[in-house]
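Sample 1 of the test manifest.
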Amino acid sequence: MNKEAEPGGTGLPAHERAYRDLRDRVLFGALAPGQPVTIQGLVEDTGAGMTPVREALRRLCAEGALQMLGNRRITVPELDAAAVAELTEARVALEPLLAARAAHLAGPEEIDALRAIDTALDAAIARGDVPGYLKQNHRFHSRLNAVAAAPILTSVVDGLWLRFGPSLRVVCGQVGTRNLPDRHKDLLTALARRDAQAASEAMRADVEQGMALISASL
Amino acid sequence: MNKEAEPGGTGLPAHERAYRDLRDRVLFGALAPGQPVTIQGLVEDTGAGMTPVREALRRLCAEGALQMLGNRRITVPELDAAAVAELTEARVALEPLLAARAAHLAGPEEIDALRAIDTALDAAIARGDVPGYLKQNHRFHSRLNAVAAAPILTSVVDGLWLRFGPSLRVVCGQVGTRNLPDRHKDLLTALARRDAQAASEAMRADVEQGMALISASL
DNA sequence: TGGCCCAGAATATGATCAAATTCCTCCATG
DNA sequence: CATGGAGGAATTTGATCATATTCTGGGCCA
Protein backbone atom coordinates (compact mmCIF):
# COMPACT_ATOMS: atom_id res chain seq x y z
CA MET A 1 0.00 0.00 0.00
CA ASN A 2 1.88 2.97 1.34
CA LYS A 3 5.54 2.80 0.72
CA GLU A 4 6.22 5.82 2.88
CA ALA A 5 8.43 5.66 5.95
CA GLU A 6 11.22 4.27 3.82
CA PRO A 7 14.54 4.65 5.56
CA GLY A 8 16.76 6.97 3.60
CA GLY A 9 13.93 8.97 2.16
CA THR A 10 14.16 7.61 -1.36
CA GLY A 11 10.80 6.55 -2.65
CA LEU A 12 8.69 9.57 -1.86
CA PRO A 13 7.99 12.16 -4.54
CA ALA A 14 10.75 14.46 -5.64
CA HIS A 15 8.90 17.62 -4.74
CA GLU A 16 8.38 16.30 -1.22
CA ARG A 17 12.07 15.51 -0.88
CA ALA A 18 12.97 18.95 -2.20
CA TYR A 19 10.55 20.54 0.26
CA ARG A 20 11.93 18.74 3.30
CA ASP A 21 15.46 19.41 2.25
CA LEU A 22 14.80 23.12 1.87
CA ARG A 23 12.76 23.31 5.06
CA ASP A 24 15.55 21.76 7.06
CA ARG A 25 17.98 24.22 5.58
CA VAL A 26 15.76 27.08 6.73
CA LEU A 27 15.11 25.61 10.17
CA PHE A 28 18.69 24.75 10.97
CA GLY A 29 20.35 27.77 9.55
CA ALA A 30 21.97 26.72 6.31
CA LEU A 31 20.43 29.85 4.82
CA ALA A 32 21.16 33.29 6.24
CA PRO A 33 18.52 36.02 6.57
CA GLY A 34 18.50 38.28 3.55
CA GLN A 35 20.15 35.69 1.37
CA PRO A 36 18.60 35.38 -2.10
CA VAL A 37 17.36 31.96 -3.08
CA THR A 38 17.39 31.09 -6.76
CA ILE A 39 15.62 28.21 -8.38
CA GLN A 40 18.47 27.25 -10.61
CA GLY A 41 20.92 27.40 -7.74
CA LEU A 42 18.80 24.93 -5.80
CA VAL A 43 18.51 22.76 -8.88
CA GLU A 44 22.27 22.51 -9.09
CA ASP A 45 22.73 22.05 -5.35
CA THR A 46 20.13 19.38 -4.78
CA GLY A 47 20.29 17.64 -8.13
CA ALA A 48 16.51 17.68 -8.34
CA GLY A 49 14.59 18.89 -11.35
CA MET A 50 13.30 22.40 -11.81
CA THR A 51 9.61 21.75 -11.23
CA PRO A 52 9.92 20.02 -7.84
CA VAL A 53 12.17 22.81 -6.63
CA ARG A 54 9.65 25.39 -7.77
CA GLU A 55 6.85 23.67 -5.91
CA ALA A 56 8.93 23.35 -2.78
CA LEU A 57 9.70 27.05 -2.93
CA ARG A 58 6.03 27.90 -3.34
CA ARG A 59 5.17 25.88 -0.26
CA LEU A 60 7.88 27.50 1.82
CA CYS A 61 6.78 30.95 0.68
CA ALA A 62 3.19 30.18 1.58
CA GLU A 63 4.34 29.12 5.05
CA GLY A 64 6.34 32.30 5.53
CA ALA A 65 9.70 30.56 5.58
CA LEU A 66 10.71 32.48 2.47
CA GLN A 67 9.36 35.65 0.95
CA MET A 68 8.60 36.43 -2.65
CA LEU A 69 9.75 39.90 -3.51
CA GLY A 70 7.58 41.63 -6.07
CA ASN A 71 10.09 41.15 -8.83
CA ARG A 72 10.05 37.35 -8.96
CA ARG A 73 12.96 37.19 -6.55
CA ILE A 74 12.91 34.99 -3.46
CA THR A 75 14.92 35.67 -0.31
CA VAL A 76 15.17 34.49 3.27
CA PRO A 77 13.25 37.09 5.33
CA GLU A 78 15.19 39.43 7.56
CA LEU A 79 13.36 40.03 10.81
CA ASP A 80 13.09 43.53 12.18
CA ALA A 81 12.02 44.45 15.70
CA ALA A 82 8.34 44.60 14.73
CA ALA A 83 8.46 41.15 13.18
CA VAL A 84 10.10 39.66 16.26
CA ALA A 85 7.46 41.31 18.43
CA GLU A 86 4.71 39.82 16.31
CA LEU A 87 6.28 36.39 16.36
CA THR A 88 6.64 36.61 20.13
CA GLU A 89 2.99 37.57 20.53
CA ALA A 90 1.88 34.72 18.30
CA ARG A 91 4.08 32.14 19.96
CA VAL A 92 3.08 33.25 23.45
CA ALA A 93 -0.54 33.03 22.42
CA LEU A 94 -0.35 29.57 20.84
CA GLU A 95 2.44 27.42 22.22
CA PRO A 96 1.22 27.47 25.83
CA LEU A 97 -2.07 26.11 24.52
CA LEU A 98 -0.23 23.17 23.03
CA ALA A 99 1.74 22.63 26.21
CA ALA A 100 -1.47 22.59 28.24
CA ARG A 101 -3.01 20.04 25.88
CA ALA A 102 0.11 17.93 26.08
CA ALA A 103 -0.05 18.01 29.87
CA HIS A 104 -3.48 16.41 29.71
CA LEU A 105 -2.51 13.78 27.17
CA ALA A 106 1.12 12.87 27.84
CA GLY A 107 1.77 9.28 28.88
CA PRO A 108 4.90 8.02 30.65
CA GLU A 109 6.54 6.79 27.45
CA GLU A 110 6.08 10.13 25.70
CA ILE A 111 7.54 11.92 28.70
CA ASP A 112 10.49 9.56 28.69
CA ALA A 113 11.06 10.24 25.02
CA LEU A 114 10.98 13.98 25.68
CA ARG A 115 13.39 13.55 28.58
CA ALA A 116 15.78 11.68 26.31
CA ILE A 117 15.67 14.45 23.75
CA ASP A 118 16.28 17.03 26.47
CA THR A 119 19.32 15.08 27.64
CA ALA A 120 20.72 15.08 24.12
CA LEU A 121 19.98 18.79 24.00
CA ASP A 122 21.94 19.42 27.19
CA ALA A 123 24.82 17.42 25.76
CA ALA A 124 24.80 19.55 22.63
CA ILE A 125 24.86 22.70 24.74
CA ALA A 126 27.69 21.35 26.89
CA ARG A 127 29.87 20.63 23.88
CA GLY A 128 29.00 23.95 22.20
CA ASP A 129 27.36 22.22 19.27
CA VAL A 130 25.09 24.89 17.80
CA PRO A 131 23.56 22.83 14.98
CA GLY A 132 22.99 20.00 17.42
CA TYR A 133 21.26 22.34 19.84
CA LEU A 134 19.00 23.71 17.13
CA LYS A 135 18.12 20.25 15.95
CA GLN A 136 17.39 18.80 19.39
CA ASN A 137 15.51 21.89 20.51
CA HIS A 138 13.29 21.63 17.46
CA ARG A 139 12.84 17.92 18.03
CA PHE A 140 11.78 18.56 21.61
CA HIS A 141 9.11 21.07 20.72
CA SER A 142 8.01 19.09 17.69
CA ARG A 143 7.59 15.97 19.77
CA LEU A 144 5.71 17.89 22.43
CA ASN A 145 3.35 19.27 19.82
CA ALA A 146 2.76 15.78 18.52
CA VAL A 147 1.69 14.74 22.00
CA ALA A 148 -0.80 17.58 22.09
CA ALA A 149 -2.62 15.93 19.16
CA ALA A 150 -3.71 19.24 17.68
CA PRO A 151 -2.75 19.15 14.00
CA ILE A 152 -4.03 22.59 13.09
CA LEU A 153 -2.42 24.42 15.98
CA THR A 154 0.74 22.44 15.37
CA SER A 155 0.93 23.37 11.71
CA VAL A 156 0.44 27.03 12.56
CA VAL A 157 3.19 26.89 15.16
CA ASP A 158 5.48 25.05 12.75
CA GLY A 159 4.99 27.96 10.37
CA LEU A 160 6.10 30.38 13.07
CA TRP A 161 9.23 28.34 13.74
CA LEU A 162 10.09 28.49 10.06
CA ARG A 163 9.95 32.25 10.23
CA PHE A 164 12.47 32.73 13.01
CA GLY A 165 14.69 29.72 12.26
CA PRO A 166 17.30 31.58 10.24
CA SER A 167 17.54 34.41 12.75
CA LEU A 168 17.88 31.99 15.66
CA ARG A 169 20.76 30.39 13.85
CA VAL A 170 22.47 33.74 13.53
CA VAL A 171 22.00 34.47 17.24
CA CYS A 172 23.45 31.15 18.26
CA GLY A 173 26.38 31.69 15.95
CA GLN A 174 27.06 34.97 17.74
CA VAL A 175 26.62 34.06 21.38
CA GLY A 176 27.43 30.35 21.21
CA THR A 177 25.44 27.91 23.30
CA ARG A 178 25.61 29.91 26.50
CA ASN A 179 22.46 31.52 27.92
CA LEU A 180 20.21 29.49 25.67
CA PRO A 181 16.60 29.08 26.71
CA ASP A 182 15.92 25.82 28.48
CA ARG A 183 12.75 25.73 30.53
CA HIS A 184 12.39 22.15 29.47
CA LYS A 185 13.02 20.82 32.97
CA ASP A 186 10.07 22.77 34.35
CA LEU A 187 8.05 21.68 31.37
CA LEU A 188 8.85 18.03 31.92
CA THR A 189 7.97 18.07 35.62
CA ALA A 190 4.71 19.86 34.83
CA LEU A 191 3.91 17.26 32.20
CA ALA A 192 4.66 14.44 34.61
CA ARG A 193 2.30 16.00 37.17
CA ARG A 194 -0.33 16.61 34.46
CA ASP A 195 -0.31 20.23 35.55
CA ALA A 196 -1.58 22.11 32.51
CA GLN A 197 -1.24 25.49 34.16
CA ALA A 198 2.40 24.96 35.07
CA ALA A 199 3.20 23.53 31.63
CA SER A 200 1.61 26.54 30.03
CA GLU A 201 3.63 28.90 32.18
CA ALA A 202 6.89 27.07 31.53
CA MET A 203 6.28 27.16 27.81
CA ARG A 204 5.54 30.85 27.91
CA ALA A 205 8.80 31.46 29.75
CA ASP A 206 10.76 29.36 27.27
CA VAL A 207 9.24 31.18 24.31
CA GLU A 208 9.81 34.63 25.76
CA GLN A 209 13.38 33.80 26.68
CA GLY A 210 14.17 32.54 23.20
CA MET A 211 12.54 35.44 21.41
CA ALA A 212 14.22 37.94 23.72
CA LEU A 213 17.52 36.48 22.61
CA ILE A 214 16.68 37.19 18.99
CA SER A 215 15.32 40.60 19.83
CA ALA A 216 18.49 41.54 21.69
CA SER A 217 20.67 40.68 18.70
CA LEU A 218 19.11 43.22 16.32
CA MET B 1 4.20 31.85 -28.05
CA ASN B 2 0.96 33.79 -27.75
CA LYS B 3 0.03 35.34 -24.47
CA GLU B 4 -2.09 38.26 -25.64
CA ALA B 5 -4.66 36.04 -27.29
CA GLU B 6 -6.52 35.60 -24.01
CA PRO B 7 -9.11 38.26 -23.14
CA GLY B 8 -8.76 39.95 -19.81
CA GLY B 9 -5.01 39.52 -19.69
CA THR B 10 -3.94 41.20 -16.46
CA GLY B 11 -0.37 41.98 -15.64
CA LEU B 12 -0.17 39.38 -12.89
CA PRO B 13 1.61 36.08 -13.46
CA ALA B 14 -0.62 33.17 -14.29
CA HIS B 15 0.15 31.23 -11.11
CA GLU B 16 -0.78 34.26 -9.03
CA ARG B 17 -4.09 34.61 -10.86
CA ALA B 18 -4.78 30.93 -10.43
CA TYR B 19 -3.96 31.17 -6.72
CA ARG B 20 -6.30 34.09 -6.08
CA ASP B 21 -9.07 32.51 -8.08
CA LEU B 22 -8.81 29.28 -6.14
CA ARG B 23 -8.49 31.04 -2.80
CA ASP B 24 -11.64 33.02 -3.41
CA ARG B 25 -13.46 29.84 -4.28
CA VAL B 26 -12.40 28.33 -0.99
CA LEU B 27 -13.18 31.43 1.05
CA PHE B 28 -16.59 32.10 -0.42
CA GLY B 29 -17.82 28.58 -0.63
CA ALA B 30 -17.67 27.59 -4.28
CA LEU B 31 -16.05 24.37 -3.08
CA ALA B 32 -17.78 22.07 -0.62
CA PRO B 33 -15.99 20.26 2.23
CA GLY B 34 -14.91 16.80 1.18
CA GLN B 35 -15.02 17.66 -2.48
CA PRO B 36 -12.08 16.32 -4.49
CA VAL B 37 -10.04 18.85 -6.42
CA THR B 38 -8.30 17.68 -9.57
CA ILE B 39 -5.61 19.51 -11.42
CA GLN B 40 -7.05 18.89 -14.83
CA GLY B 41 -10.49 19.94 -13.72
CA LEU B 42 -9.10 23.29 -12.60
CA VAL B 43 -7.15 23.56 -15.85
CA GLU B 44 -10.36 23.21 -17.80
CA ASP B 45 -12.34 25.51 -15.49
CA THR B 46 -9.89 28.36 -15.27
CA GLY B 47 -8.32 28.09 -18.69
CA ALA B 48 -4.88 28.37 -17.12
CA GLY B 49 -2.01 26.06 -17.86
CA MET B 50 -1.14 23.01 -15.83
CA THR B 51 1.97 24.33 -14.11
CA PRO B 52 0.38 27.49 -12.67
CA VAL B 53 -2.54 25.45 -11.36
CA ARG B 54 -0.17 23.00 -9.71
CA GLU B 55 1.68 25.80 -7.96
CA ALA B 56 -1.53 27.44 -6.80
CA LEU B 57 -2.67 24.12 -5.35
CA ARG B 58 0.62 23.68 -3.53
CA ARG B 59 0.26 27.09 -1.95
CA LEU B 60 -3.30 26.44 -0.85
CA CYS B 61 -2.28 23.08 0.62
CA ALA B 62 0.58 24.68 2.51
CA GLU B 63 -1.87 27.21 3.97
CA GLY B 64 -4.28 24.51 5.04
CA ALA B 65 -7.03 25.57 2.66
CA LEU B 66 -6.76 22.21 0.92
CA GLN B 67 -5.30 18.93 2.05
CA MET B 68 -3.08 16.55 0.17
CA LEU B 69 -4.12 13.01 0.80
CA GLY B 70 -1.20 10.62 0.71
CA ASN B 71 -2.31 9.18 -2.58
CA ARG B 72 -1.76 12.17 -4.88
CA ARG B 73 -5.34 13.24 -4.23
CA ILE B 74 -6.37 16.72 -3.10
CA THR B 75 -9.65 17.50 -1.36
CA VAL B 76 -11.34 20.32 0.52
CA PRO B 77 -10.91 19.45 4.23
CA GLU B 78 -13.94 18.33 6.19
CA LEU B 79 -13.90 19.74 9.69
CA ASP B 80 -14.75 17.50 12.61
CA ALA B 81 -15.49 18.67 16.14
CA ALA B 82 -11.84 18.52 17.16
CA ALA B 83 -10.78 20.65 14.20
CA VAL B 84 -13.43 23.26 14.97
CA ALA B 85 -12.30 23.33 18.58
CA GLU B 86 -8.71 23.88 17.51
CA LEU B 87 -9.67 26.61 15.09
CA THR B 88 -11.71 28.28 17.80
CA GLU B 89 -8.81 28.17 20.22
CA ALA B 90 -6.44 29.59 17.64
CA ARG B 91 -8.79 32.35 16.55
CA VAL B 92 -9.62 33.32 20.12
CA ALA B 93 -5.92 33.45 20.88
CA LEU B 94 -4.94 35.57 17.88
CA GLU B 95 -7.73 37.73 16.54
CA PRO B 96 -8.30 39.69 19.76
CA LEU B 97 -4.62 40.61 19.60
CA LEU B 98 -5.19 42.10 16.17
CA ALA B 99 -8.29 43.93 17.36
CA ALA B 100 -6.36 45.42 20.26
CA ARG B 101 -3.60 46.58 17.96
CA ALA B 102 -6.16 48.08 15.61
CA ALA B 103 -7.73 49.96 18.50
CA HIS B 104 -4.42 51.68 19.11
CA LEU B 105 -3.79 52.51 15.47
CA ALA B 106 -7.17 53.18 13.86
CA GLY B 107 -7.74 56.66 12.54
CA PRO B 108 -11.14 58.21 11.80
CA GLU B 109 -10.99 57.41 8.07
CA GLU B 110 -10.25 53.74 8.69
CA ILE B 111 -13.12 53.55 11.16
CA ASP B 112 -15.41 55.16 8.60
CA ALA B 113 -14.36 52.63 5.99
CA LEU B 114 -15.07 49.80 8.43
CA ARG B 115 -18.44 51.31 9.25
CA ALA B 116 -19.30 51.47 5.55
CA ILE B 117 -18.41 47.79 5.13
CA ASP B 118 -20.51 46.91 8.16
CA THR B 119 -23.45 48.78 6.67
CA ALA B 120 -23.13 46.79 3.45
CA LEU B 121 -22.91 43.67 5.59
CA ASP B 122 -26.15 44.50 7.37
CA ALA B 123 -27.79 45.09 4.02
CA ALA B 124 -26.66 41.68 2.81
CA ILE B 125 -28.07 40.07 5.95
CA ALA B 126 -31.36 41.93 5.58
CA ARG B 127 -31.85 40.73 2.01
CA GLY B 128 -30.78 37.17 2.85
CA ASP B 129 -27.77 37.36 0.55
CA VAL B 130 -25.45 34.65 1.83
CA PRO B 131 -22.54 35.17 -0.60
CA GLY B 132 -22.78 38.88 0.00
CA TYR B 133 -22.64 38.34 3.76
CA LEU B 134 -19.60 36.11 3.46
CA LYS B 135 -17.83 38.58 1.24
CA GLN B 136 -18.56 41.65 3.36
CA ASN B 137 -17.78 39.84 6.59
CA HIS B 138 -14.42 38.80 5.21
CA ARG B 139 -13.80 42.31 3.95
CA PHE B 140 -14.56 43.72 7.38
CA HIS B 141 -12.13 41.48 9.21
CA SER B 142 -9.53 41.77 6.47
CA ARG B 143 -9.68 45.54 6.60
CA LEU B 144 -9.48 45.50 10.38
CA ASN B 145 -6.39 43.31 10.22
CA ALA B 146 -4.83 45.71 7.74
CA VAL B 147 -5.32 48.50 10.26
CA ALA B 148 -3.53 46.45 12.89
CA ALA B 149 -0.38 46.60 10.72
CA ALA B 150 0.83 43.18 11.82
CA PRO B 151 1.65 41.26 8.65
CA ILE B 152 2.73 38.03 10.30
CA LEU B 153 -0.25 37.74 12.64
CA THR B 154 -2.50 38.69 9.75
CA SER B 155 -1.14 36.01 7.46
CA VAL B 156 -1.56 33.40 10.18
CA VAL B 157 -5.15 34.47 10.76
CA ASP B 158 -5.84 34.50 7.02
CA GLY B 159 -4.73 30.89 6.97
CA LEU B 160 -7.23 30.05 9.70
CA TRP B 161 -10.03 31.71 7.71
CA LEU B 162 -9.14 29.59 4.71
CA ARG B 163 -9.60 26.49 6.83
CA PHE B 164 -13.15 27.18 7.97
CA GLY B 165 -14.34 29.06 4.89
CA PRO B 166 -16.00 26.10 3.18
CA SER B 167 -17.71 24.96 6.37
CA LEU B 168 -19.00 28.44 7.12
CA ARG B 169 -20.53 28.52 3.66
CA VAL B 170 -22.32 25.26 4.39
CA VAL B 171 -23.66 26.59 7.67
CA CYS B 172 -24.99 29.76 6.09
CA GLY B 173 -26.62 27.75 3.37
CA GLN B 174 -28.43 25.79 6.03
CA VAL B 175 -29.56 28.46 8.46
CA GLY B 176 -29.77 31.42 6.11
CA THR B 177 -28.63 34.84 7.28
CA ARG B 178 -30.48 34.78 10.56
CA ASN B 179 -28.55 34.54 13.83
CA LEU B 180 -25.27 35.40 12.17
CA PRO B 181 -22.50 36.76 14.36
CA ASP B 182 -22.26 40.52 14.28
CA ARG B 183 -20.38 42.05 17.17
CA HIS B 184 -19.08 44.60 14.73
CA LYS B 185 -21.04 47.44 16.33
CA ASP B 186 -19.33 46.87 19.67
CA LEU B 187 -16.06 46.55 17.84
CA LEU B 188 -16.53 49.83 16.02
CA THR B 189 -17.41 51.79 19.15
CA ALA B 190 -14.42 50.27 20.95
CA LEU B 191 -12.17 51.27 18.06
CA ALA B 192 -13.57 54.79 18.06
CA ARG B 193 -12.83 55.06 21.79
CA ARG B 194 -9.37 53.54 21.28
CA ASP B 195 -10.35 51.01 23.93
CA ALA B 196 -8.12 48.03 23.22
CA GLN B 197 -9.60 45.95 26.00
CA ALA B 198 -13.16 46.37 24.75
CA ALA B 199 -12.12 45.73 21.15
CA SER B 200 -10.40 42.56 22.21
CA GLU B 201 -13.48 41.38 24.08
CA ALA B 202 -15.81 42.19 21.21
CA MET B 203 -13.61 40.30 18.79
CA ARG B 204 -13.49 37.30 21.08
CA ALA B 205 -17.27 37.29 21.28
CA ASP B 206 -17.62 37.55 17.50
CA VAL B 207 -15.19 34.70 16.93
CA GLU B 208 -16.79 32.43 19.51
CA GLN B 209 -20.24 33.13 18.15
CA GLY B 210 -19.22 32.32 14.61
CA MET B 211 -17.35 29.16 15.50
CA ALA B 212 -20.21 27.99 17.71
CA LEU B 213 -22.42 28.23 14.66
CA ILE B 214 -20.14 25.88 12.75
CA SER B 215 -19.76 23.60 15.72
CA ALA B 216 -23.53 23.31 16.13
CA SER B 217 -23.99 22.24 12.52
CA LEU B 218 -21.88 19.08 12.79
C1' DT C 1 -12.52 -13.25 -3.26
C1' DG C 2 -8.24 -12.11 -5.06
C1' DG C 3 -4.98 -10.96 -8.55
C1' DC C 4 -4.09 -8.71 -13.15
C1' DC C 5 -4.77 -5.13 -16.55
C1' DC C 6 -6.04 -0.79 -18.28
C1' DA C 7 -7.57 3.96 -18.27
C1' DG C 8 -6.70 8.18 -16.41
C1' DA C 9 -4.53 11.43 -13.57
C1' DA C 10 -0.40 13.26 -11.35
C1' DT C 11 4.58 13.78 -11.53
C1' DA C 12 8.76 15.09 -13.63
C1' DT C 13 11.76 16.70 -17.55
C1' DG C 14 13.58 19.74 -20.82
C1' DA C 15 12.84 23.28 -24.05
C1' DT C 16 11.35 27.79 -24.96
C1' DC C 17 9.88 32.39 -23.94
C1' DA C 18 9.86 36.62 -21.16
C1' DA C 19 11.57 39.71 -17.77
C1' DA C 20 14.92 41.85 -14.82
C1' DT C 21 19.30 42.84 -13.23
C1' DT C 22 23.97 43.87 -14.42
C1' DC C 23 27.51 45.63 -16.70
C1' DC C 24 29.53 48.06 -20.33
C1' DT C 25 29.85 51.84 -23.36
C1' DC C 26 29.37 56.41 -24.71
C1' DC C 27 28.40 61.05 -24.23
C1' DA C 28 27.93 65.24 -21.60
C1' DT C 29 29.73 68.09 -18.15
C1' DG C 30 32.81 70.09 -14.63
C1' DC D 1 41.07 65.11 -19.15
C1' DA D 2 38.48 62.76 -15.68
C1' DT D 3 34.06 61.56 -13.82
C1' DG D 4 29.38 60.44 -13.53
C1' DG D 5 25.12 59.16 -15.35
C1' DA D 6 21.94 57.52 -18.93
C1' DG D 7 21.03 54.08 -22.16
C1' DG D 8 21.38 49.68 -24.17
C1' DA D 9 23.04 44.99 -24.89
C1' DA D 10 24.09 40.60 -22.72
C1' DT D 11 23.51 37.38 -19.18
C1' DT D 12 21.16 35.42 -15.66
C1' DT D 13 16.85 33.94 -13.77
C1' DG D 14 11.96 33.03 -13.64
C1' DA D 15 7.55 31.43 -16.01
C1' DT D 16 5.09 28.57 -19.02
C1' DC D 17 4.19 24.84 -21.95
C1' DA D 18 4.23 20.27 -24.32
C1' DT D 19 5.36 15.78 -23.52
C1' DA D 20 7.11 11.48 -21.54
C1' DT D 21 6.86 8.65 -17.42
C1' DT D 22 4.96 6.71 -13.26
C1' DC D 23 1.61 5.66 -10.15
C1' DT D 24 -3.13 5.02 -8.34
C1' DG D 25 -7.76 3.13 -8.60
C1' DG D 26 -11.22 0.51 -10.45
C1' DG D 27 -12.94 -2.96 -13.51
C1' DC D 28 -12.50 -7.61 -15.29
C1' DC D 29 -11.66 -12.30 -15.16
C1' DA D 30 -10.31 -16.59 -13.08
